[in-house]
Amino acid sequence: MARRKDNLLKDIMDLLMVLPWWCSPIASIIAYVGLGSILPTLLPVENPLFLGISRGLPHLAVFFALGAPDTNAIRFLQYSTQETVTGCTKWH
Hints:
- By secondary structure, the protein is mainly alpha-helical.
- 75% of the residues lie in helices and 0% in strands.
């Protein structure tokens, strides 16, 4: 039996889709603050590689902040499709 490769981002998105809707915006705020403010100050800037990473992380943080509406939209589309097919709605 073949094992699937672990994909951390997919696992996090699956977890956020199972949790209540308000966990997703909280996780995106934590990721935005962590990637935009905290992590760049922890990297050593003497190394040119880490200097480039620390300058690019705040720009990457915006994509994580925009992830919360996406997971909620995917969840809404899944439940609306389920309601169309089965005739019942299941909201968390």
